[in-house]
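Data deposition worksheet. Section B asks for the primary sequence of the deposited chain exactly as it was used as input, without tags or linkers unless they were present during the calculation. Section C holds the resulting structure in token form. Section D is free text for depositor observations; keep each observation to a single sentence. Incomplete worksheets are returned to the depositor.
Section A, Depositor: J.P.
Section B:
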Amino acid sequence: MTREAANARRVSAGLEFDLIVMDVMMPGENGVALTLSLRIAGDVAVIKFTVRAVFMKGEDQPALHDNGFWELTSGTGAFAGKRGVGALTIEPAGGSNRAFTLTGEIGDAP
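Section C:
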């Protein structure tokens, strides 16, 4: 995992992907351009997700509620010609780690 496009390009060189989850608003080159420039082979789903962080009043401090939605925008292999959309739930998973749960539907593109 990396926070900016130039580093993502360096660390991903020569790797094969099963899933690409990219931030479209990452610093430098945006995630869409970076994803399209990668040499993608095999069964790879390209998912765009949007997260909205909301702080709500908690007992001692504000509580963060960050959820959103995902969209299967393209893919290769088994994901070629597929589209999908659904909900994205983010839960604490210890320390600064988060567990992402995606629910929704994937089907043939219209």
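Section D:
The chain has a mean pLDDT of 81.
The chain is about 15% helix and 45% strand.
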